[in-house]
Amino acid sequence: MGDIIKLLPDHVANQIAAGEVVQRPASVVKELLENAIDAGSTSVMLIIKDGGKALIQVVDNGIGMSATDARLSFERHATSKIQKAEDLFNLDTKGFRGEALASIAAIAHVELQTKPENSELGTILKIEGSKVISQEVGTVSKGTSLSVKNLFFNIPARRNFLKSNQVELRHITDEFHRVALAHPAIAFQFHNNGNEIFNLPISNYRQRIVNVFGHKSNAKLVPVGEDTQVVKISGFIVKPEFARKSRGEQFFFVNNRFIKSPYLYHAVANAFEGLIKSDAHPGYFLYLDVDPASIDINIHPTKTEVKFDDEHTLYAILRSTVKHSLGQFNVVPSLDFEKDQNLETPYAYKNKGADIPKVSVDAAFNPFQETAQKHVGGKTYQKDRNVNSKAWESLYVGLDTEIDNGNEFSTIAFESEAITSSIFDDQTESVETKTTTFQLRRKYVVTTIKSGMIVIDQSRAHQRVLYEKFLKNITIKEAVSQQLLFPLKLSVTPSDQSILHEIKESLHTIGFVFDIATEETIEITGVPLLVSESEVGMVLDQLISDYQMEISGESFSQTDILAKTLSKTLSVKTGEVLDTASQIALVNDLFACKEPQVSPFNKSVYVTITENDIDKKFI
Ligand code: ADP
Ligand code: MG
């Protein structure tokens, strides 16, 4: 057999490399911004069109490139940033692999304009899919402008895989935040579809955070500072009372590079323990300076992960520093600092037991009243008696003959915590419903059907009920909105503001009526029926963050995402006690749904156990 191994042609190798470097437009933004910073720029402009699918352009005033360098910069492994392997251990630049431009040029239409300070004329270079189309000498301003058009034009599968423009813009904005927050000494501008979104002047760290997240954020920040031999820590934590349900404002920078680190996150979360609710996340902007030789940033192609030499020490120092700031700035009345002096082992709190969720039950709940509302753990379960399922009722056998009435059954103590509501003493109601249910482990509602029994996941069932209700409201465009007597003012960050703007119409269709009052406040005049006034802030927060994260990849539309989020946020949760009447209402509502068998997130809502199944167990 002859030789069969061949070297891949460059353009193929570049396309393969591009798959790793460029996942989406935001990856291009990151690489280009980083190159601009490495070039010593003091002013950088980012221009985006159609979520980066049509155009991504970065214009800087850095050192620029000579004509030869301009051409070389698109070769693979071409970099000015390292020369020998040892340089890898002393990096102070963002890039070093020399792959980004080669990869980007392999999968897009690229135009580079660049001129070093001392040259008269600059270079204009066009490359499409690794092929040089033209190289000209021309009048260009000092620095570099790189525009990337038609990303993935030659890889349709990747192009089709891209999300909506809004979602891609969201990812781009995240990258922009990360770079801008790490470099307050550089001015940044960001234009999207011709509109200026950010104009950040040269400033200090605190001002930069405030310029990015809005002036309200200033009052939320508590400074953090510590200087040890291992690490220098500076930056800010967000006061515990402003902790959010979403993981939005969490930024670690190591040597001015944004990184993700579940381990360091844990250190901060640990310091906040007891100060914020268990389902809230601390906010922080923490800048760590370490000896470049003590870290390895090379372990991930997109370089957001870092390996530290001495993780344990770093963990302990970080935690005690954050704790110290929380105490020092009177954020909390008293804190025990003694414990931290000996830098105890990380993850110590793992051994602690889990908190039992607190549940408040409104025993006076009457599901058969038109307007009855039940507050369970802060949630509102509202019964809509108009939705009644004849189909479901026909599944029942004549329970009134087999078991005298539901009441007797429900008093059998299957679960010590089972609560029988006084409502159920109302014999006529219970007989009429002919439904027997009980709650298992505060998680499942069990009920009988002709062929046996079904076990229903209470939370998923309620999600399904709410989801269909919201979708129905949306489709008939007749959202039930409660008018607020006094408009509610909520402060939001500029980026939240822009999301709210994007989804305003959809929010309207589900019952949120609001106006953008000022740059950082919105005025709410109506809320969906199922949302209480005190929940509005929390619900909107969740809606924004889910929308940002696009909770379910396969959502078809904004409204679908919103309906999913609302159903998730407002549903009864595992761990909540449901009285018998609520259980019955839930069962009836569930089986009045179009798709009772799956939750909005495609999880099974119930399982059926037939008499046959049970019989088999007794053989
Ligand atoms: P890396 O950043 O890893 O070196 P890139 O492919 O991103 O690799 O860039 C290759 C080279 O092109 C860089 O090393 C740098 O010399 C040059 N370069 C890229 N962008 C710029 C820019 N905006 N200004 C000046 N030089 C640049
Ligand atoms: Mg680079």
The CATH class of the largest domain = Alpha Beta
Structural class estimated from helices and strands: alpha+beta
| Count of individual domains | 3
Continuous helix count? 20
Backbone CA Rg: 29 Å
Q: CATH topology of the largest domain, anyone?
A: Heat Shock Protein 90
Query: What topology, given as strand order, has the largest sheet?
Result: 5-4-3-6-2-1-7-8
Identify the overall geometry: globular
Unreliable segments (pLDDT under 50, ≥5 consecutive)?
333-363, 365-433
Q: What is the averaged pLDDT score?
A: 79
Q: What gap, in angstroms, lies between the N and C termini?
A: 65 Å
Number of strands: 24
Q: For the report, how would you describe the main beta sheet? A: 8 strands, mixed
Helix content: 25-40%
CATH superfamily of the largest domain: Histidine kinase-like ATPase, C-terminal domain
The oligomeric state is single chain
Molecules bound to protein: adenosine-5'-diphosphate, magnesium ion
Label the CATH architecture of the largest domain.
Answer: 2-Layer Sandwich
Strand content: 15-25%
Secondary-structure blueprint of this entry?
Elements: H1 10-21, H2 25-38, E1 43-49, E2 55-60, H3 67-72, H4 100-106, E3 109-115, E4 122-128, E5 131-138, E6 143-149, H5 156-161, H6 165-182, E7 187-192, E8 195-200, H7 205-213, E9 221-227, E10 232-238, E11 250-254, E12 257-259, H8 262-272, E13 284-289, E14 295-296, E15 307-308, H9 311-328, H10 338-341, E16 373-376, E17 379-382, H11 390-393, H12 399-402, H13 406-410, H14 427-433, E18 437-440, E19 444-449, E20 452-457, H15 458-475, E21 481-491, H16 494-509, E22 513-516, E23 521-528, H17 536-549, H18 558-570, H19 580-591, E24 606-610, H20 611-617
Parallel strand pairs: 1-7, 11-13
Antiparallel strand pairs: 1-2, 2-6, 3-4, 3-6, 4-5, 7-8, 9-10, 10-13, 11-12, 14-15, 16-17, 18-19, 19-20, 20-24, 21-23, 22-23
Helix pairs in contact: 1-4, 2-6, 6-7, 8-9, 15-18, 15-19, 17-18
